[in-house]
Each structure stands twice: as C-alpha cells, then as structure tokens.
C-alpha cells in the first residue's frame, strides 16, 4: 500500500471515529484499525521526532509503534529546550532526563537512525549527558542500525570516548553512515567488519594513524571519507577502496602526507598547507577539487593542469596570494565551473584572465573578494587608461558572479575584460553588498547585515564604477544584475 493510500485510510478511520465519539470504548477500537502493525510503524517512521511523540500520546497503535520507532533524533530543538523554556544552567539536565525516559520505554529493536546533537554546554555540570551516553548506545546500536551521528559536545576538557566494542560483533555490519564529532575514537583490529559503511565523518576527533587504518581496512564499501580538525593524524594512508569517490581533509594541523590507493577517487577537498605531500594514485580521475591554502591561485594555475587534467569543477580559497596568476600554455580542457575566493583586495585581479585562457570549456565563474586590511587602489584614484589583456574569446562562458564587487581598479579591469571577450555571456552579477543575504532574501531575517559607513561609501563607488566603465561595454543580450545595499535597512546611514 502506498503512502497516499495509507493516509486516505487514516482519513477514513478519522471520519468513522467522528461518527462514534459518544463511546470512548469505540474510540479505542478505532485507534487500532485493521491495518497491519508494519504499515502503522512505517507511517509513524515518516513523522519528525516531535510529531511522532505527540501522536503516540493519542493513538494506541502509534503508542505501540513508538516503542520500536526506527529514527531517533535528539537535540535541544527536538525537545524545544532553550532559555525560554528552561534555565540555561539546567538545559542539559532536562535534555538528559528526556532522552533517558524515551529510551527507557524503547524496545531497542528496529532502530535505523540514532542522531544526537548537543550544543548548549556552558560549564562542567553540563557534561551529565556524557555519563549516560554509553547506556544509550547499548540500547540502540544493534544489528540493523544504518546511521549513527554523535555530536556529544563536552566542556572543561571532557571528551567522550566512543566505545568501539559496540561494533565487535555483528552490530556494525548494517551501519552505512558514521559521523562522530568532539570525541575520542580508538578502533582496533577487533572492531569487526563494517561491510556496509559508505560514509565516515570525523570532526574534532582524537584518532591516530594506525587506528584510522584499522577502520578503513574493514570498510570495503566506503564511498566518502571526511576528516576535519583531527589533530593526531600525521600520515593519512588510504587503502585500495574501490568505491571511495569523495575525500575531504580539512585543517588537520599535524598532517604531513596523504597517500591514497583508492582507484576511483573523483572528488577531493583539502584545506591544508602546500608542504603536505599528496600522493593520490590515479589523480587523472579527479573531476572536482576544492583547495584551501596560501597562494592557492598560483598553485592551481601552475600545478593542477598537469596533475589533474580532467578537472570539471575547481574551487580555490587563498588566504594570502603573494604572486599573480601567470600566463602559461597549460590547459584545463574539461573545466566547466570555477570558483575563486581571495582574501586580499589589493590583488591584481586582472591576472586571473590566465584561468580563462586556460579553460576553453568554462561555463560558470564565481569570484569571492574577501575584505582584507589592505585597501585597493580605486579606479577613481588612478585616472590612467584601463589595461587591456590580449583578447582570447570565451565561447562557452555563460554566467559570471562577483561577490563584494568594489571600485578596485584591477577588479574593474577584470570585469571589463570578461564583458568584452566573452561573446557567449548570458548573465553578469556584481554584488556590492559583500555577498551577505539581504532582508528580502531570507524570511527569517528582519534586516540586512550591518554595513559600516566606509563599506556603504565603497558600495556607492562600486555602483559608479559599474555605470561608468562596465555597463557601456555590456551587450544587450547580457542580463546585468547589480546588487546594492538595501535602501530600506540603510536609509538612515550617512554616506
């Protein structure tokens, strides 16, 4: 029976119940309809956690299925706990008691998802949930569980030591997604076979090289590995995992080398220094790369065409850029999507033309100009003629978006070059609002992000630069979108 049929059946039962409200006994009979318990459990499992708990209070059938509810998600939001409903220093005690009560009445059978997210930890006494976490996991981590997500935030140096013995029997064989945050994780060869695991995510987790190798060696079906702030990892070794396609490694401070023998890696995200040695085996298959480091633009232009020639998506974030992007003969023949974020406003943005010349298949370009301490030379402070680069016409570039567009001379030069040399351009968006959401973009935001008087003044100069230098060069076939600070939220600001 499909979900729609199930809901219609429920509607029919509700109508029948309304006709017989005179008898409470009859209501109880209606609360146990002729549908099989498997169907009721399935319907119940589709409800969000809070709604599932509510209907269990008013329906005998749902009350029974609540004892084997498969998707358990616990957070302060789940229970509606905040400073308005509970004293700040008592939130975690209330949270712990509520989880205790729910799991006390749960059979522990049929759990597929256990997701615990903790955020309201302010002092040492808020670590009470850590004392109960082992017993909670003993209830839910059994054969059949598919997703386990733990963010048991502690404070005052308290870290949860995940009990790897949970997986020593067949409990881990069905696990598909494991996500651990802020804890100790020390698997050994006794961890057992995680033969169904497809995603492993470790954020702020204390785990050493050999321990990570143990879990990877038993995860034959792993498709995605995500490591962030794992400060104990020095040499990341990835065995020949045939299904691993996505690798993310971010800010692992002691990391010196990554060696991967996974033959089908297609997506790689790495935030780390250039001195980290990368050995990715058949890097020719990598089609998507995110790279965050110093001099990322220079590195990408000089090294990547030969190392990863089949890239289709490239995103780079440069914390500092000491050298301009050079003009080179090497090509990104398959690159379609390019995102560059530069944390330096006085950078020579016109040098980024090198990426366009190297990317004949480029379709979308996004430039994020991150505000820095160094102020760029404004186009209005230097009256000399705009520099022009040799025209290399783009035949496929359709969309260009520049966030935090300003009157910086080199940024205006780059924009003019794009407009003149790109005959295929369909949409050009210049955002002078620093790329922040406006009140009209977000229903939950009553007002725009606060902008200083200096930022508002620069936005005005950027708008003038667009009108003076860019707009006259834009073809009538191009949609030009110029996003400016909200006139309503900044109406009272003095420029």
Automatic annotation (TrEMBL):
This is At1g61320/AtMIF1 LRR domain-containing protein. InterPro entries: At1g61320/At1g61330-like (IPR053772), F-box-like_dom_sf (IPR036047), LRR_At1g61320_AtMIF1 (IPR055357), LRR_dom_sf (IPR032675). Residues 102-487 form the At1g61320/AtMIF1 LRR domain. SUPFAM superfamilies: F-box domain, RNI-like.
């Amino acid at each position: 029976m499909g979900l729609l049929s199930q809901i219609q059946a429920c509607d029919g039962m509700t109508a029948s119940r309304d006709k017989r409200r005179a008898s409470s006994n009859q209501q109880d009979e209606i609360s146990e309809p002729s549908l099989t318990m498997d169907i009721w459990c399935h319907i119940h499992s589709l409800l969000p956690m809070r709604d599932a708990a509510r209907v269990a209070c008013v329906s005998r059938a749902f009350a029974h299925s609540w004892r084997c509810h498969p998707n358990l998600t616990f957070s302060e939001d789940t229970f509606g706990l905040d400073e308005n409903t509970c004293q700040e220093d008592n939130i975690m005690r209330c949270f712990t008691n509520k989880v205790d009560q729910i799991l006390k009445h749960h059979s522990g059978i049929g759990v597929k998802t256990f997701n615990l997210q903790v955020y309201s930890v302010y002092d040492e006494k808020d670590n009470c949930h850590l004392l109960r976490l082992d017993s909670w996991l003993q209830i839910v981590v059994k054969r059949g569980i598919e997703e386990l997500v733990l963010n048991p935030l502690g404070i005052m140096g308290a870290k949860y030591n995940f009990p790897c013995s949970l997986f020593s029997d067949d409990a881990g064989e069905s696990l598909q997604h494991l996500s651990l945050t802020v804890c100790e994780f020390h698997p050994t060869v006794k961890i057992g076979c995680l033969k169904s695991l497809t995603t492993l995510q470790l954020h702020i987790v204390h785990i050493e090289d050999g321990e990570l190798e143990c879990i990877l060696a038993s995860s034959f079906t792993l498709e995605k590995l995500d490591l962030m702030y794992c400060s104990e990892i020095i040499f990341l070794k990835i065995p020949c995992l045939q299904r691993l396609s996505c690798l993310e490694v971010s800010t692992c401070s002691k990391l010196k080398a990554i060696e991967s023998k996974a033959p089908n890696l297609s997506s790689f995200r790495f935030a780390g220094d250039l001195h980290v040695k990368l050995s990715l085996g058949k890097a020719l298959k990598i089609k998507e790369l995110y790279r965050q480091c110093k001099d990322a633009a220079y590195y990408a232009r000089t090294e990547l065409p030969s190392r990863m020639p089949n890239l289709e998506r490239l995103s780079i974030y440069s914390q500092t850029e000491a050298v301009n992007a050079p003009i080179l003969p090497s090509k990104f023949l398959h690159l379609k999507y390019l995102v560059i974020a530069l944390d330096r406003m006085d950078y020579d943005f016109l040098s980024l033309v090198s990426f366009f010349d190297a990317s004949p298949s480029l379709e979308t370009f996004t430039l994020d100009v991150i505000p820095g301490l160094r102020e760029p030379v404004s186009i209005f402070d230097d009256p000399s003629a705009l520099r022009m680069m040799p025209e290399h016409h783009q035949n496929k570039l359709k969309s260009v978006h520049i966030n935090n567009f300003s009157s910086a001379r080199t940024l205006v030069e780059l924009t003019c070059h794009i407009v003149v040399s790109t005959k295929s351009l369909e949409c050009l968006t210049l955002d002078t609002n620093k790329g922040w959401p406006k009140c009209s973009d977000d229903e939950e935001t009553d007002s725009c992000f606060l902008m200083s008087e200096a930022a508002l003044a620069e936005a005005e100069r950027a708008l003038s630069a667009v009108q003076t230098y860019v707009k006259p060069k834009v073809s009538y076939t191009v949609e030009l979108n110029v996003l400016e600070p909200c006139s309503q939220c900044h109406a009272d600001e003095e420029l």
